Amino acid sequence: MRRTGDRTVGVAACPVRTRLVAAGAAVATVAAGLGLRAVAAGGVAKYGGDTLYTVLLHVLVVLMAPRVTPLTAAGSALAVSWVIEFLQLTEVPVELSRRSAVARLVLGSTFNPPDLFWYTVGAAVGWLVHTAVGSRAAAARPPASVNMRCLILGRRR
User: Fold this and answer.
1) CA dist 110 → 80, 88, 97 (Å)
2) Alpha-carbon distance 98 to 151, whole Å?
3) How far is the C-alpha of 141 from the C-alpha of 144, rounded, in Å?
4) CA-CA distance, 48 to 121, in Å (whole number)?
């Protein structure tokens, strides 16, 4: 991010562009998860999936709140991942999973302490990528182009 006068300019300056990038990242993350399951097995597939689960949550936070900071998005994704994991200590996910395949995918069913570590790795990956994309985008274009794109897309700052 660069400061120009009294405002910060970067990827978050245009929420429409940020949401488009986040939507693409969500699709890529899901594809990576499916690809990982197709080519790997055992711990690599399981813990890689846990990592990508939190990365996807990070991307969804950015999609909902495009001006969110990388640290807030990563912390939110990690918190949701951990809450869902600890929820598995109850019977709620098992009951919901019996009724819905989507619930089974989202909530899982069995508490596994190592998952907490891999969720943290996913939050760190999300934070690193979000920070890098934001910094690169801020350095790549002048403030006027950000304003012009937002105006063309019908968004006010």
Assistant:
1) 16, 6, 11
2) 48
3) 8
4) 10
Q: What is the pTM of this model?
A: 0.80
Q: Which tokens belong to 130?
A: 């979000």
Q: Provide the b/e sequence for 139-150 (b: ≥16 CB within 10 Å).
A: eebebeebbeeb
What is the CA angle 72-77-79, rounded to 5? 95
Say if residue 157's pLDDT is above 60.
Answer: no
Reported as a single tens digit per residue, the pLDDT across 115-149 is: 999 999 999 999 999 999 987 776 665 555 555 55
3-39 burial: b if 16+ Cβ within 10 Å, else e: eeeeeebbbbbbbebbeebbeebbeebeebbeebeee
